[in-house]
Amino acid sequence: MQIDVTADVFKLAQVFTISRGSRTEAKVLTVRITKGGVTGWGECVPYARYGETLESVTAQIEGLPEQVSREALYGLLPAGAGRNAVDCALWDLQAKQSGKRVWELAGLAKPGPEITAYTLSLAEPAEMQAQAAKNAFRPLLKIKLGTPDDMPRLEAVRAGAPKSTIIVDANEGWSAEVYAVLAPHLVRLGVALVEQPLPAGEDDALIGMARPVPVCADESAHDCSTLAQLKGKYDVVNIKLDKTGGLTEALKLRDAARAEGYDVMVGCMVGSSLAMAPATLVAQGAKVVDLDGPLLLGEDRENALKFDEDGVHPPVAGLWG
């Protein structure tokens, strides 16, 4: 078995801004695992918020033994980007070796398309209204907020896209006091979900607080081991493969979260269709699907995911799985 990891860069269609900063490109790691002349691959997006860099994750992957299995990965790599890319590459390898699709190997029903959110970058209100108007045909828009001056932005987006469902991602940018003030306005403007309003280390403030709009855990939720910490604070769990450490753990977290009474959101970092492909299996039947990474890119992989009025479609075998 040979494991190779390379760094790849995809230009974005336009500057993408959240409360933590802006970017013009997506920097990813591509892992290829070859055995018996067959190669499986996967992609991850190391994320500075979780202490990851391209270099540190590359070192994790290059430090793996020559022979590795999905089961062994749990003891070799922590939940995070590196384990994600390797786990997904191993799933793809097994699919190619067996001639079966990953969903068959995992015992899942055949997947179909799911409506996905489309994310509007953080900007001045007039620009966000223009973005919203341009994308008003989309049924679900996600707004990046998390600043002291968010209400004009939210009002502008609603004016630009009066019929779209809106979800809001504060990226840990609000305090408990700010969220309490904003909550009634979120209801008034028809916001369907608010994602990670408070910093992960300060979200105990959500306990006992009224949640007129469902609150989703993102930075506070990683893998199954973090699920117990969400009780009384959140209504929805955002599952991202770069947090769970791969498809294997993402499927476990989805089932565990639902068993605990949470709704499920399936999200992504900004990556290519290869990164989104495994997540489309987790996204089946989710309350919210947010797999728009490829829509934000100016370039993508060959055999890219299909997006149309039915949503994001599962990958063709030529891409992954």
Strand content: 15-25%
How do the SSEs run, as a string of H and E? Answer: EEEHHHHEHEHEHEEEHHEHEEE
Q: Which structural category fits the helices and strands?
A: alpha/beta
Number of helices: 10
| Global outline | globular
Q: Describe the main β-sheet briefly.
A: 8 strands, parallel
Low-pLDDT windows of residues: none
Protein model, in words:
By secondary structure, this protein is α/β, with parallel strands linked by helices. It contains ten helices and 13 strands. The chain has helices spanning 54-62, 70-76, 81-98, 102-105, 125-134, 151-160, 176-188, 241-244, 247-259, 273-282, and strands spanning 2-18, 21-35, 38-44, 118-120, 140-144, 165-169, 191-195, 215-217, 236-239, 263-266, 288-289, 307-308, 311-312. The strands form three sheets. An eight-stranded parallel β-sheet has the order 4-5-6-7-8-9-10-11. The protein has a three-stranded antiparallel β-sheet with strand order 1-2-3. It has a two-stranded antiparallel ribbon with strand order 12-13. The model has no long low-confidence stretch (mean pLDDT 95).
